[in-house]
Design a protein that fits this description.
single chain, binds adenosine-5'-triphosphate, 41% helix, Rossmann fold, 9-stranded mixed β-sheet, VC0802-like, 2 domains, 6-stranded mixed β-sheet, binds magnesium ion, alpha/beta
Length: 400
């Protein structure tokens, strides 16, 4: 016997009307995409939940992929059997014996098919007795069991599920529009991207690259991070902006203390241009309050002035150790700490202004014409689309 289904619960109660339908279709599409390396797996919708029919694929491997999909509340491995007392007994016994760390259990039968001759309550006893008399070391605990064995007798078949595994929660990626993630290669911005995706937002990324001051390896690091983000959603398009000339101009012409503020304003201006072109309605950064000079309230105020697009900052209230924890959990940390310089670290002034003033920045910027340099940067953008293939190829290599 082997688990042949995965039951997916998606907490739809919070969603109503049209939203619910969009949500469910998006979730099913996203699941299909995540499971593309399991060609025989089939995703079915039934009232208020989904099933993945494994058709011979390894249950644990498929489960692992499903656990990367936003919009899933919880998951369980399930066995499908005929509505037949003996088959149900055998399957329940198998499920109990194949659970780990279980000493106490409880059986919960739900009889939806009223044609089935044994009523729910009676079936609870029948199965409980069967399990106890065919095993040793287990006891029944109806209040706090280690395992609740759920048996759902539906018209088409009976499903037996054992432990409930938490999903990632959130909303299916693609159900809340798209954002342009400013992706630096540090620890914070990939986490910000992940958290935005959690709320159903699709992500495109923009990276400011300053060769030869920043290396190819620094760029590759950003692409590797973007590749990781595809594990949680669709493909990720990365816009790589040639930023050297703009940065050199800023640091040659602008007062050193204001260099950081002006550089960030240029980044936002270029990002807004990309948003317009790609019909993206917001930007996202990895800023958190108080971390560094550019992340004071005054600084955010002075930087944000150049755009009226919403700038999402999912990390704004988080401590660094909370951010690092997420970064490790989503397997980004080791990439983020690769020691390659970012354009911000190379051109960083010795003592940047921590309380920049809008009026001053505008005065400085008015002394020189940046429009051509911005235009050149926008025109020089290289677009790289990551599809998540790299991971699959790696998995394939491992098999050889
Ligand atoms: P991170 O860990 O994401 O690099 P940080 O703590 O180093 O963040 P800053 O250097 O102040 O913070 O950058 C703030 C935000 O600006 C980043 O989180 C990122 O969203 C954006 N950013 C900084 N540098 C770049 C870059 N080279 N390309 C794209 N976005 C950038
Ligand atoms: Mg950084």
């Amino acid at each position: 016997m082997q688990y042949d289904h995965i039951l997916i619960r998606y907490g739809e109660i919070a969603l109503k009307g049209k939203n619910r339908k969009t949500f469910i279709i998006q979730l099913q599409n996203n699941l299909r995409r995540q499971l593309k390396s399991f060609p025989d797996a089939v995703i079915k919708r039934t009232q208020g939940r989904m099933f993945v029919l494994l058709n011979g694929h390894d249950p644990d491997q498929v489960m692992e992929k499903c656990q990367h999909v936003f919009g899933i509340q919880s998951l369980s491995l399930a066995l499908k059997v005929q509505n037949d007392e003996t088959e149900i007994k055998d399957a329940a016994l198998w499920a109990l014996k194949n659970s780990t760390d279980v000493r106490t259990f409880k059986v919960s039968v739900k009889r939806i098919d009223k044609q089935f001759p044994i009523r729910s309550q009676d079936m609870n006893h029948v199965l409980g007795k069967h399990l106890l008399s065919n095993t040793t070391g287990y006891t029944v605990d109806v209040h706090h069991p280690d395992l609740e064995l759920k048996v759902e007798i539906r018209t088409e078949a009976t499903y037996i599920t054992s432990s409930v595994v938490p999903g990632l929660g959130g909303l299916p990626v693609g159900s809340s529009g798209k954002t342009l993630l400013m992706l630096s290669g540090g620890i914070d911005s990939p986490v910000a991207g992940y958290l935005t995706m959690k709320r159903g937002v699709e992500v495109e990324a923009i990276h400011f690259h300053s060769p030869p001051f920043t290396s190819e390896r620094a760029k590759q690091k950003v692409l590797d991070l973007a590749e990781k983000l595809t594990n949680y959603g669709n493909q990720v398009k990365v816009h790589v902006v040639p930023f050297t000339k703009l940065q050199q101009h800023i640091f040659r012409e602008m007062p050193e203390k204001y260099g950081m503020t002006i550089m960030r304003r240029m980044m936002l201006r270029v990002s807004e241009r990309v948003c317009r072109k790609e019909s993206i309605l917001s930007m996202t950064t990895g800023e958190s309050l108080g971390q560094v000079a550019s992340q004071t309230m005054e600084s955010m105020n002075a930087i944000n002035e150049v755009t009226n697009y919403p700038v999402l900052r999912p990390l704004v209230s988080m401590d660094k150790d909370e951010i690092i924890k997420i970064s490790r959990d989503i397997d980004m940390y080791d990439i983020s700490i690769r020691p390659y310089d970012d354009c911000c670290t190379i051109f960083v002034p010795k003592s940047p202004k921590t309380r920049p003033v809008r009026e001053k920045v505008n005065e400085f910027e008015a002394q020189t014409d940046f429009s051509e340099l911005i235009e050149e940067a926008v025109n020089g953008i290289e677009v790289i689309t990551l599809t998540g293939k790299a991971d699959e190829e790696k998995e394939f290599d491992d098999l050889l």
